[in-house]
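Need tokens for this chain, all 650 residues.
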Amino acid sequence: MRVGIFFGGTSREREISFAGGRTVFDNLDKGLFQPVPLFVDSQGHFILLDWQYLYKGTIRDFFPPAAALPASRHPWQLYLENLGELRDEALTDLISQVGRRVEASELPQLMDFAFLALHGPGGEDGAIQGLLEWVGLPYSGSGILPSALGIDKIAQKKLLKAIGLATPDFCVLTAADWDTADPAALLSLLGRELGLPLVVKAPHQGSSIGIGIVREEDPAQFTAAVERALFRRTLTAQEWESLDENGRLAWVRQLADIREGIGLPVKAVAGGISPFVVGKDEPETFFHHPEALLGYIEASFPHFSTILFDSVTGETQVLIEQFVAGREFSCIVVEDENGQPLALPPTEIVKGTEVFDYRAKYLPGLARKITPIDLPEADIERIRQEAQKMFSTFGFEVYARLDGFIQEDGTIFLNDPNTTSGMLPASFFFHQAAEIGLNPSQFLTYIIRTSLAARRRAGLKPVQLAAQLETLDSAIRSRQGGTDERLRVAVIMGGYSSERHISVESGRNIYEKLSSSTKYRPIPIFLTGSSAEFRLYELPINVMLKDNADDIREKIEQAEAGHAAHPILARIRQEAETITAVYAGQAIAAPRRLSFAELADLADEVFIALHGRPGEDGALQQELEKYGLPYNGSGAASSAVTINKFETNR
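Here are the structure tokens for all 650 residues:
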């Protein structure tokens, strides 16, 4: 089956979508599916992407191509929209440098199924879902209506209130009302009605973009939070004049950032007449390129005292909520084989910042994920039941991620459901699936199969999709009970050096690429101990996906001390048995200590994903050679030399 992976997109979350699409591409089972990378650029064009661009660090590293960027006094990182209005011929030429432009009507000729890794408006709001239904192409996740509801935080709040589900009190502020409001008076009113702190949200954004917390009755703090949610920014002449040249460049770069700033293009209006100039406010002007914006600011401030910047893709309303104090969690809910919701083990988010913001969500080390949340079984089960109820009430299909808080008195608040979860390797999506025994490749297969069933149930090409389902089911059944003839590769990760966390990231990356292969069967092996004694452990998938090497080692120590897993896990695994029996196969339940002799019986060869000692100093290589295990990289002697910079220089 040809699976088109839609990633990138027009929203402020496009970079996370780009990285998630790469994860899906890497993990898609190549024995069942042929991946087709379908990049969506920031203006919504479909591009059949040349595969090598998947592995660029960011979208701006390859598109628009460097040769197409206009000459500029200063270096800028640009998206397609920064080039302004392009003629169709010029756009097609740009696209041809990274792939081929595809029209919507061509999509069914290129793929049999669309896997949506798009986020935010244009990806989770029903728009792409409607287009795919128009061309008759089945897709992953929820359908048009639940997607439209899932992107709209204000509509969600109204529905939760209407059906009696717990949700923090809130109010809605329109941009038009804000333009004529007295910020101090409005903040005072909200403080009396909702209490402080207040949570101010952009109602159609994800990844915590456009969110701020107002803790005190401070009009300036409140104004900044509302402007952040509307994607506006006000700059004063006094603020600008206080910056040196580097500071001014940094200010423009921050404004142009689609996540931390308001993004471009912007509408700019200079006003507040300088006492030295007689006249009126300058007419509004639109800017696509940061260099032109910088020039406008520098030219305006001798004559005006303020400039208001307004993103052309900003919001028209702001959601203002009562602050909820409690333990934050996230819960993935999937449909079981009968179309009923099944909540996976909820994860507690232990964050180092007040808000689980964009950086904390996607940068390693800024937050910890604890699965399941450390609560009594009864409380976790209540979270699961509430999540399943919301899933059904909102009409979600296939899967969704539901976030919330549990307070000290046991009150559970659910908020901000996501119909497309983040799909980075360490995301909740894969993290929680691993707790029932599914590796990322297996979970993606289940999502595709469940999505086909959901589209057929909703009436999309029922005869054709029935045939697709039978073909896929037959291919999955043919693997059960048979001999796995793939080459067994032990992927050794971890170690005891300061680079052990990076080693785990590398090892997981290798494991995931190999697990989707038709040639290799990876086995995750964790190495710990010391130079005097290497200790090897075969890992279950849920332990391998813990946050870092120290968390993995802690789980190993708990297992060796006889600590049982949380009882809720046994219950959820039992509920999910009909899924895992088909998709997961046999898997170990706890970390298992191995000798090198046992490793030689378990694996045909070894991939060393260790950094520093002992992976790069020849010591591990010597042990592997004793047992006749082939491995990647340099041999023991050359590794012993290159780990020593002095000897290498000699």
